[in-house]
Amino acid sequence: MMTIQEYNLRITKDQADIIMLALDLYTRLSAGQFHDLKDISFEKDKSGINRQPSEETLKKLHKEMFPKLEMYNASYGIHSPQLPDKIREAYDIYKVMMYEFNKHKGIMNVYADKVRQASKKPLPSFSKIKGHKK
What we know:
By secondary structure, this protein is an all-alpha fold. The protein has helices at 13-31, 55-65, 85-102. The chain has two domains: 11-32 and 77-128, no CATH class; 34-74, no CATH class. It is globular.
């Protein structure tokens, strides 16, 4: 029997938000959802407006990386056999975190449902620790 090494990571809510954003972007891009790239821009042009990739550039990149997906708006579902299980594992981590931060918001919240495991790996555990003053 193999022992699984486990770790604890102590983070703030702001740090958790960054991790969730990164996991969401990683799973979406890995599935072919490139439209989210338009929202990532830190460089500004000469007039001070954030630079964004053109739709044409994103379409070319999508076609290059996902030739089996015939349309730019097409993407793989999280359970698609085309996706490696590591992508589903990242999705599971994201979903567990989103559930834990949103479960108190009631049943009408999209993240308030119990997490349905997508990967073959066990779901991570999540627990809130008592806060402390600086």
